[in-house]
Write a structure and sequence with these properties.
alpha/beta, single chain, 6 helices, Rossmann fold, 144 residues
Length: 144
């Protein structure tokens, strides 16, 4: 039923809560989990534009942290007996999620209801809400 799951994560508490559901889906026929973290290029662009720091240094640090967090998730899923593919992309989260959904032929997307930036989400709409509206696959949203 859920052979290939896309798990977009920003490493927030809600997204970590969604991780618990992934390990339970092994018994539902899950064969592979694609763990996706998107480094939001809009924030990096702002750093570059307004001189708030060296963008490349920031990108390297964020990428390093994402790899460390991703390894923890990957280890937990592998210990549960699941096949895991970790992807770290740089771009706009919604676009990257939809791109990976299509490229990997995803069965279902499991995503947290809110990420780390609640204020921005209230003003612009959350990534999870946009994924629900634009995804071709079913979307399971995990609430706080």
């Amino acid at each position: 039923m859920f052979k290939k799951i896309l798990y977009p994560t920003d490493f927030s508490n809600v997204s970590k809560k969604a991780l618990g559901y992934l390990t339970q889906l092994k018994d539902a026929g899950t064969e592979e989990i694609i763990v996706l973290h998107v480094i939001d290029k809009r924030g990096i662009d702002a750093i570059s534009r307004y001189g708030a720091g060296n963008a490349e240094t920031v990108i390297r640090e964020i990428t390093k942290e994402a790899k460390e967090e991703g390894k923890k998730i990957e280890k937990k899923l592998i210990q549960s007996g699941l096949k895991v593919k970790m992807i770290i992309e740089r771009g706009v989260p919604l676009k990257e999620i939809l791109k990976i959904e299509e490229k990997e032929k995803i069965s279902v997307i499991i995503i947290g209801s809110h990420g780390k930036t609640n204020l921005k989400e209230m003003l612009l709409g959350s990534v999870s809400e946009k994924v629900i509206r634009q995804s071709k696959s079913p979307v399971l949203v995990i609430k706080r």
